[in-house]
Amino acid sequence: MKLTLHIWRQRDSETKGEMVQYIVDDVSEHMSFLEMMDVLNDNLVKKGEEPIAFDHDCREGICGMCSMVINGQPHGPQKGVTTCQLHMRSFNDGDSIYIEPFRAKGFPVVRDLIVDRSAFDRIIQAGGYVSVGTGSAPDGNAIPIKKEEADEAFNAATCIGCAACVASCKNASAMLFVSAKIAQLDRLPQGKVESKERVSKMIAQMDEEGFGNCTNTGACSAECPKEISLENIARMNRLHLKSTISPT
Amino acid sequence: MADLISNVPDGPLADKWTKHKNTIRLVNPANKRNIDIIVIGSGLAGASAAASLAELGYNIKCFFFQDSPRRAHSIAAQGGINAAKNYQNDGDSIYRLFYDTIKGGDYRSREANVYRLAEVSANIIDQCVAQGVPFAREYGGTLANRSFGGVQVSRTFYARGQTGQQLLLGAYSALSRQVAVGKVKMYNRHELLDIVKIDGKARGVVVRNNATGEIASHGAHAVLLCNGGYGNVFFLSTNAMGSNATASWRAHKRGAFFANPSFTQIHPTCIPVSGDYQSKLTLMSESLRNDGRIWVPLHKEDSIAIREGRLKPTELSEERRDYYLERRYPAFGNLVPRDVASRAAKERCDAGFGVNKTGQAVFLDFASAIERYGEEQANIKGISIKDREAVMQMGREVVSAKYGNLFQMYEQITADNPYETPMKIFPAVHYTMGGLWVDYNLMTTVPGLFALGEANFSDHGANRLGASALMQGLADGYFVIPYTIGEYLADDIRTGPISTDHDAFKAAEIEARGHLSSLINIKGSVPVDDFHRKLGKFIWEYCGMARNEKGLKYAIKEVRSLRAEFYEDVRVPGKLDELNTELEKASRVSDFLELGELMCNDALNRNESCGGHFRDEYQTPEGEALRNDKDYTFVSAWEYTGQPEKPKHHKEELVFDNVELKTRSYK
Amino acid sequence: MAFSGLFLIVFLTQHMLINMLSVIDSLRLNFFGVEESNLFNEVAYFMGNNPLVQFGLQPVLIAGFMIHMVMAFVLQAKNYAARPDRYQYANKARAYSWASMNMLITGGVVIGFLGLHFYDFWIPELKAKYVTGKAHIGDGPATEEILADVNRFYPELVHRMKYPWRVAIYCGSFVLLGLHLNHGFQSSFQTTGVSQGKYIPLIKKAGITFSIVVPFLFTVVALVHFFIS
Fold first, then answer.
1. Distance (Å, rounded) from C-alpha B284 to C-alpha B296?
2. Interface pTM (ipTM) of the complex?
3. Touch test C–B: 3 Cβ pairs or more under 8 Å
4. What is the CA radius of gyration of chain B?
5. Shortest Cα distance from A210 to chain C (angstroms)?
6. According to the model, what pLDDT value does residue B337 have?
7. Are A121 and B186 inside 8 Å of each other by CB?
8. B260: helix, strand or coil
9. Which option is the CATH number for B503-629: 1.10.260.40, 3.20.20.70, 1.20.58.100, 3.40.50.300?
């Protein structure tokens, strides 16, 4: 396959970036998208040019490190997969592919396609935990939890924190990410105790990081590689309302 | 050996840990506030250790190379975590978990450590549940269990196929809580370059901020290495792309002994290599072997025809297939342990029966499972089993309910539909049992330098059982190090802050910077990955699933010349003081190139076959592993002498007071 | 947005119901041979003269509108600022619907429509009641008697709806109002956290129904008066 790539190159958050065109002509359809990027980088290094910086790690769709907006969609055209699981057979010979970083005020560009997503860590630090110290836990079976609730909590907990939700949202809102953690913990008795406090703190942090507001377009969930449900956002909204009305 | 003191407490096995905890020295809370600890890595071991130590009051700095601590590769663990809870009332106990683990490790691990692991396993589950980890549950609301390879009880706790993710997010949340109160400082995109020793003790680290290229020193009273395994020596493995051995290796160069480096686990069911561009391998859960049958064609001409695309595997009649695991191991069949299954696949492919283009794959076939389940369903629903299409459809539905996500992942990667045609699989490097040598307190041979989780060698011997890695990482971090570190730090309450003005820091920084700039200044013509790929091929070929003296000696020679070539001809574009992904890779590969040689040396030194280490020369007439308990019941610990070519060998004799050493047989 | 939106949904419903009375009036007058039918006039008079409605509900309604509008612009500004560097390649993210992505456009059209609507009915009404003290019907002269006439509302409505351009604008706006409601209805329930589990399909269906039925009936009002009355 021969492809024309248009890739965002940016030195750092201070410098202005631009789209640069590259041609790769030795692409196999069995390659993953990131392997195609590897090939391109290999060619660039051999030519003495600087390779394109992009985030990636596990390459099996679970660590959430890979990002990239490919032809206008975070993680590319396929539903329910991360960029690292996307394969070149999803594209055709001769295609032009546009590759950009996840764009949001909360995610400054570090270099090329790498953005700084530590805002997500700070949101979790604001309250995305159960306040339990090591060693003070009761027996695991001491509190029975309905299977359905545990399953739903798990579904929310499968969020990989990749930030595709922010990247896809026209408002660069982080609501899906934040709500997934809030909903997970709210569904479990261990986490419910702190729900109200947690929701206020995490939402306050989310706003402070400069993310946009939710206008319920549903793009986040549709583009989420783990297909996290919008119901989590509704749940968070409900909790937020409750905690605003009665904070304790 | 006088220089390897394991510090295992006296007394009966079951009382050792309790006794140790009761007599270990403590640091009082006021003094803890004056003590700094550095943690390298934010996976299960690192995050749990950092969180637990911060809760106790120590000041923690945690360094990791990913952009967020939640991305550490522990997150990719699929299956589950073992714990001796005996919730199923099936006779499980601490002793049984201990025994299974010792036996699974082919009697090459330390009894006391393994027993302690089994002992604290139950607390891990409680801790994780309290953190909000959504483990699978029964309809009654209690925790569910499943059973895993090589054991006879159900003791594995799981969260669908993403147990590692859920446990790591639990530890990450505990860590985040401590970051919020200011007890832990996080340094993302930071990579360790060196351990700094003052008066023989580990007193800090030199790190590089990969995002800016800035190199800096940090002082502390103790350093914890929780940087995972070194499987990426092989280039292709199930590890993450960034997983590296640099922290372990630089510690090794500063005096930490490296134990059993040749003990690596090759997982039998992974998606085969499809081309030279391949960057990593993807694991398909061990659970698939419950229903899938592994085979290759019985006749070589059929294999060739399949390889060339002239014959479809589904067209091959039963008589022309060789279900080699069922043939060789009738008692366990397709469910033999990982090391055995991997070797058997290699043997068939080496003999020319491989079924993909490269000849490096075998079939994992679900056709008979689909048929069996379909007929079962037909009987239940009262449909005639003569309606084959309906039967197969119902069978596919049952298989989909069990393994749907794995089948989907397989199709995603290979574009083959495993419901229609057998999967192609091949073994791949998965886990490294070897690691830095540690004593009972998890301290390496460098005072003040500790190693936790996959980074140490202590608990899995020569082969790790499924669902034990998560258990060990969290046990070390949550329940072992918070106690054992006190023993060392009790002497440090009057030391005061460790200043990085000390000459040792300056020297280490200069050296680290020098190493990196020398890599850039080579200005050769070959990209780093090319060297890494070549190294991986040598190690895989000669120090992989089967090793022999001739091959190992050859590999050592080749790795040395590859290393020389690397320092002559590697091309690292970009600069030192900025984000430079090629430089990061070059730095890691420079360590792999040395560690690879040590792995071969270790394999060469161990004249027996045990667990993941199989020497062609030491096998039974039937081709099974032949252990030599008389001469090799020890841990090999290697000392760095200043030259990677001349490692010094030390032994820690293993004493088994509580179990009898037996041959593992799966016939 | 959600609360003011829900409030406006309630308002819209009652507005539509009252307007439907005029349709009933028209049908009775034109097809059933009824001499006099003042259902619409009665309610309109009540709404226009009841002090509770005029001085209690009306200001609340105005406030509701203002909040909804101002917040829409504030939100939009904030949301725009959340992505200072735009994508070079158009955002192709899958979303619910065109409507959900373009609330500002549909809302803007509705605001424009309201301008005309106010010019047609509300402003003359206010002027008559609080400034001149005289009302008029159609192009006729303004007198105090008309203002006092309980049945002046229906003829005025019919008069306004006789211009094709106006009816066209009204009907066109109702389509966009429908789109606005299509997203706004279920969005309100999502934002207030009502959407959960079994209610979600229910809310979705209700939202779609509401967003079709209400604008459709408004259209019916306009068309009935244009063609029949």
1. 19
2. 0.97
3. no
4. 25
5. 6
6. 81
7. yes
8. coil
9. 1.20.58.100
